[in-house]
């Protein structure tokens, strides 16, 4: 009975935190549609359609593979192998996004602002690097830290967006010589949303730093091959989702 109660309690923490995070994030939609022009909102929509697709490619099903192999293999070995695999692949894929920045920016209709893709690449990379630490929190039965980290990240994102899109312009309008006027660009609003997202991911990464660095620098090649055979087909399901 105690096991059922524990499972129910953890499910509530994981479920409520995910639902609350989505709900809070959805509250941004009317605010952003008010702040953005149609063209700016279109740019943001394209970029935020690109990011989740790349998240699937960057993580290539390893989160599911981590849970699957942790049940039957040495947990520390699985965690170390999975973490190192994602670190190496994230570095390579992020460098590829940077190397092909200009053609990809044109493909995403933001050729005049290639820095948007650079910010998106950083967001995707940090998302990928925190995937396994989040999974480890669930495996270790630590739903409160999981929920705290998720909700903190969302609240930081909202606060940063409001600061960049509302407070900064207001301060500059009130005081044209304000120090922010030397850095702030009113035509870079989509960039500020991406920057806010990047700040969120940095905060989340810092909160999860203990879990992230909790692996050993030991890579099990045989285990990795098994995990890849299991995980790679999940990319298709992930892209479909």
From TrEMBL:
Transmembrane segments: 12-34, 46-66, 78-100, 116-135, 147-172, 188-208
Superkingdom, natural source: Bacteria
Annotated organism of origin: Niabella ginsengisoli
InterPro entries: Poly_Biosynth_Transport, Polysacc_synth
Keywords: Cell membrane, Membrane, Transmembrane, Transmembrane helix
Organism lineage string: Bacteria, Pseudomonadati, Bacteroidota, Chitinophagia, Chitinophagales
Location in the cell: Cell membrane
Pfam family, one: Polysacc_synt
Record's protein name: Oligosaccharide flippase family protein
Keyword Chaperone belongs to the record: no
Annotated membrane topology: Multi-pass membrane protein
